[in-house]
Amino acid sequence: MSDTTPPPLRARHGERGEKTHASFGGIEKSAARGGNTGPDFTGIAGSAEFGELRSRLKRFVLPMTALFLLLYLGYVLLAAYAPDFMGEPVFGNINVGLLFGIGQFASTLLITTLYVRFTARRVDPEVDELRETTGGGQR
Amino acid sequence: MNALAQQQSPLDGTNPAVNITVFAGLILFTLLITYRASSNRNTSDYFAAGGTFSGAQNGIALSGDFLSAASFLGIAGAIAVHGYDGFLYSIGFLVAWLVNLLLVAERLRNTGRFTMGDVLSFRMRRRPVRAAAAVSTMFITVAYMVAQMAGAGDLVALLLDIHSSSGQALVIAVVGVVMVFYVLIGGMKGTTWVQILKAAMLLLSVSLITLFLLGKFGFNFSDLMQRAAQNNPLGERVFAPGAQYGESALTKLDFVSLSMALVLGVAGLPHVLMRFYTVPNSREARRSVVWATWLMSLFYLCTLVIGFGSAALVGTETIRNAPGEENSAAPLLAYEIGGTPLLGVISAVAFATILAVVAGLTLTASASFAHDFYANVVRGGRADPDSEVRVARITAMVMGAAAIIGGILVNGQNIAFLVGLAFAIAASANLSTLLFTLFWKRFNTSGTLWGMYGGLGSCLLLMLFSPVVSGAPDSIFPSVDFSFFPLSNPGIVSIPVSFLCGIIGTFVRPRSADPADFDEMEVRSLTGIGSRDVVG
């Protein structure tokens, strides 16, 4: 922790913050770190439970990120390089491009909902358990 | 623009004095309410909130922060004038929130305390990284503020019916000074409440106008589009993409570049990132992003109707000839539908939007500069609090002045386009380092600095030598031409450059940052363990 240990002046920021609240609402406080008495982070990071949590999150988040970026990129490339296809009317003046655009809204909301369900079922309970077993404090 | 001075006013039959009175009355009313609502609260609520805001409240405030004048005035105008191409902004601005939801919001909340610099410097050498974070925050903020100032000036010029460039420049200067003054006097207090109130007003009025427009056309959106095409010289070309960006291979590339900046920029905006700290924990941060996403989906769907609606009811030519040009579409539509009262309401909502966004931006950036740069870097941590606050105030004034000058220079440009440039800077300077520091163990201080300065520098340089600044009829300096970069949005080049610089910079130094710090950061960012004592 040689070059990342908070210098002693960090402790003083808290006191200073009190005096300057009126002007900047504590903005000048910095992220004081837990210090050496905190939880054993390396130990937790190496534990099987945490490893499982980490890979579970990755297995959801990374494919989803790739999916929405590809959907978006595909949409943008179609709009830029296939305007005739996008202008193909479907009904009335509503064309393919408009439906695809609305589709981006739908996919965004769908991925948002899926993520919320995923975290509520598969992540949050795990995190709570991990916090309890490691004494990481309560929410 | 002088040629247009003789044109008939688009707000014919109204009295500028009445317009501005209704408008000013509503602004004062809004400020009074927010002042009273917030006066019994502790000033520190806004930044160090540490649990005062629920996910829902914060989500509304988050959408308030994000739905700036660009989203409202800019997108409506872009769709009214260019049709489908303007819709891209709506989609980019919305999809971008998935980056925040999936990758950034919760991890940031768990790891940092207040600024983006907290997270970036977590496992790096603090001083240089904090300095870099402060510098990028300043540039992004000023670019973002320029767009807001231009929007505010356009709005007031429209209400006062001022057509001459010098008159509009004066309006931007006066409005800008008023805004900075507001921030300096005590803007902190109510900013979150201004955001919540304003987001509610904005969403409400936008939904009502949308319902009205759809009702007028028998809930047949196709008919509304038909009328919009009839009132637009582009005709039915507005239905499909390409009306604005379809001209040549270069403009198409520009379109792709802009769309990249939009989707990747949100996760680098300092005032948006800051909002993840005003909730008690990462789950509330997630909840607030979900709230914001739903609210913004509603809003951006409405912009589509409002954009085509203003072309249909007001007509594209009238919009183009109005003071403020494209940015006047939504207020003109309001006038067409509800006369002076609705014009006043919509203008007041738009102005409150700008005021709140400018206040948030100014405070974030000036405080970050005073703390991260002045106190920790210049004074080596030995600055006394009074001088820190004084530096923050001076910074706010300097940034305000820069934004006013910038706003005057870009007067007449679509503000959604201008915000697109701020997004390009944010995506180039911050996104790569933020993702690397969260997900890449080998990443180190050198990589952080390379990534930030490389991305920021390349983005600013390319902008300077782009048609936005010189060489084109609608450039800032149309009479000279020193542009060699053909795209008006540099995102497609500068964003990959910043990722590349981050990687190169990392391998230039043989050692990675302390692995124990990465462990701590990873555990904290995923579980929040240890973050409680930070909030304390």
From TrEMBL, chain A:
Cross-referenced InterPro entries: DUF485
Keyword terms, alphabetized: Membrane, Transmembrane, Transmembrane helix
Spans annotated as Disordered: 1-40
Signal peptide positions on this chain: none
One Pfam family per UniProt: DUF485
Start-end of Basic and acidic residues biased regions: 12-21
Transmembrane feature ranges: 60-82, 94-116
Keyword Transmembrane helix belongs to the record: yes
UniProt entry tagged with the keyword Membrane: yes
Protein name: Uncharacterized membrane protein, DUF485 family
Automatic annotation (TrEMBL), chain B:
InterPro entries associated with the record: Na/Glc_symporter_sf, Na/solute_symporter, Sodium:Solute_Symporter
Gene Ontology cellular component list: plasma membrane
GO terms of biological process kind: plasma membrane acetate transport
Molecular-function annotations in GO: acetate transmembrane transporter activity; symporter activity
Compartment list: Cell membrane
Annotated transmembrane regions: 20-38, 59-81, 87-108, 129-147, 167-187, 199-219, 255-277, 289-314, 342-370, 391-409, 415-438, 450-470, 490-508
Keyword annotations: Cell membrane, Membrane, Symport, Transmembrane, Transmembrane helix, Transport
Major site of localization recorded for this protein: membrane
Bilayer disposition of the protein: Multi-pass membrane protein
Pfam families associated with the record: SSF (PF00474)
Family under the similarity heading: Belongs to the sodium:solute symporter (SSF) (TC 2.A.21) family.
Name the record gives this protein: Cation/acetate symporter
Organism: Actinopolyspora xinjiangensis
